[in-house]
Design a protein that fits this description.
By secondary structure, the chain is mainly alpha-helical. It is built from 5 helices and 2 strands; from the N terminus they run αααααββ. A hairpin with a 5-residue loop joins strand 1 and strand 2.
Length: about 170
């Protein structure tokens, strides 16, 4: 395998300018992360030039520089701050959802209990009415309500409607 050649001066200038923009937090062509991929994108050169053709002379140099910088560019800082804010919001919304889900479960149990109590009360009432009617010797009328006609003033007529006869 032949030794690694020196990179062209034009490539070095492009990469230096792009690295300076990334370190300053003012990327023009990339997301602003301090990575070799974003450096190549920012310099508008092929990534393989850094990773395969000049890995020791260029890639290692910029990786070390980015690592030494130990700070994140402004776009990345802003994105991470927004991400943290969204994570907090998500945690709050999930907590609210859990509380509401518990509340809905409690309400469902209460509604079920009330429905059982109502059905039981109706059954007891019907039994009491049936027992009373049997004791008095009375026959109950049908449970269907009688239809009443409304007057023009909106009041109900005291007498039920007679069924219409067909001619």
């Amino acid at each position: 395998m032949s030794p690694e050649l020196d990179p062209p001066q034009e490539l070095c200038v492009k990469l230096r300018t792009a690295a300076d923009r990334l370190l300053a937090g003012t990327p023009l062509h990339s997301s602003g992360k301090l990575t070799i991929l974003d450096l190549a994108e920012e310099a508008q050169v092929k990534r393989w030039l850094l990773t395969h053709k000049y890995p020791n002379k260029l890639m290692a140099k910029y990786q070390a520089e980015f690592k030494a910088a130990r700070h994140k560019s402004e776009p990345v800082k802003k994105a991470e701050a927004e991400l943290d804010k969204l994570r907090e919001e998500l945690a709050r919304v999930r907590k609210d959802k859990r509380q509401l889900t518990e509340l809905v479960g409690i309400y469902a149990v209460m509604i079920e209990q009330l429905a059982r109590e109502r059905a039981s009360a109706i059954a007891e009432r019907d039994e009491a009415i049936a027992a009373r009617d049997a004791a008095l010797g009375v026959t109950a009328l049908s449970a269907a309500p009688q239809q009443r006609r409304e007057t023009p003033t909106g009041q109900r007529s005291p007498r039920p409607l007679a069924p219409k006869r067909s001619r």
